[in-house]
Amino acid sequence: MVLVVLALDAVDVRHAEDFGCENILLDEHTEMKSVAHRLDHPHTGEAWPSIATGLHPTEHGITGHGEWDNPILTVASRAAHTLNVSGSIRSKVGDTIKENTNQEWKLTTVSDPTFLDGETRAVHNWPGVYRNEALQYIWRLFQDAKDDTISKETFVREAYTEAASKFGWVKEAMTYNVEVAATHIHVLDVLGHMFAEDREQYREQYQKIDERVGEIRDTLGPDDNLLILSDHGMEASWIDEDEDYGSHSWRAIASSTVGSPPEHALDVRDWVEDHVEQIEADRTRADLPEEQLRQLGYVE
Ligand SMILES: [Zn+2]
């Protein structure tokens, strides 16, 4: 039995309902309460490590949009967020720092236990937990799209092909002896920000992702289960009356094929443990031609 966990960034339960996304909504769904510490709304960088650990951002310690190599620059970057400096100005500040100091921006990962730990739990990128590079790649391109260094069309293509690599990964991972196959997919976050004023374009993105989720749902065996989670939703001009559309809403989602989904981000870890069927890792040692690999420099 495999429990597939799709971390669909920014899927807003209200939009999924309004657009009739039957696959995203699965058998049962709920508006899941998320967490926020640094800002007054949930944010990708701190919500996903909370979902994986069951700990509040103040407990797991990843509260920033990212961390700079140099702690002084981390403080400066966080202060810019707290003061609500606009994204474009903040990015320019970041670019200036990069140009002038050669500091690279990166997300750090938690040291606390998560439901993604262990040899029989397969994971492919999870912000703040395991390999942030896919998220960072998309964020970097998003900046390029805002700066007009790449076209909107190129950005949309890259967002979807990156997402496709995760959907394909899930299908492959499910064919192995694993308890959990989990991945994070960022496409509806960045395209949500892009189309938060255009209901038709926005609906199109939801329908496309709903189809991809349907393909995963179709490959579930009789004992396999699917849990879908988001970290926040997206305020949109046709729903949210303040001028804040394009920013994160509190309308996160949890849906599942197996009973009631978790109601709170901090309950997800326990929920997963309650729904996983534990298996023993096969400890057969890989028989490798050690001497040849040593000569090639592959092993020490
Ligand atoms: Zn997010």
Can you walk through the features of this model?
With 300 residues, the chain is α/β, with parallel strands linked by helices. It has a domain at 3-37 and 113-281. The chain is 44% helix and 13% strand. The protein is built from twelve helices and ten strands. The strands form three sheets. A six-stranded mixed β-sheet has the order 2-10-7-1-6-5. Strands 3-4 form a two-stranded antiparallel ribbon. Helix 5 (71-82) runs antiparallel to helix 6 (87-101) and helix 7 packs antiparallel against helix 8. The longest helix is centred in the middle third of the chain and has 22 residues, at 152-173. It starts with a strand and ends with a helix. 40% of the residues are buried. Residues 67-104 have low confidence and may be disordered. Residues 9-10, 44, 189, 231-232 line the site of zinc ion. Zinc ion is lined by residues 9-10, 44, 189, 231-232.
Gist of the model:
The protein has 300 residues and is α/β, with parallel strands linked by helices. The chain has 12 helices and 10 strands.
Relative helix content: 40-55%
Euclidean distance between termini CA atoms: 37 Å
Please work out how many helical segments DSSP would assign.
12
Report the principal-axis shape.
globular
Low confidence ranges: 67-104
Mean pLDDT: 87
- In terms of structural class, how would the helical and strand content be classed? alpha/beta
Largest sheet: 6 strands, mixed
SSE topology string = EHHEHHEHHEEHHEHHEEEEHH
* Strand element count: 10
Strand order in the sheet with the most strands = 2-10-7-1-6-5
* Small-molecule components bound: zinc ion
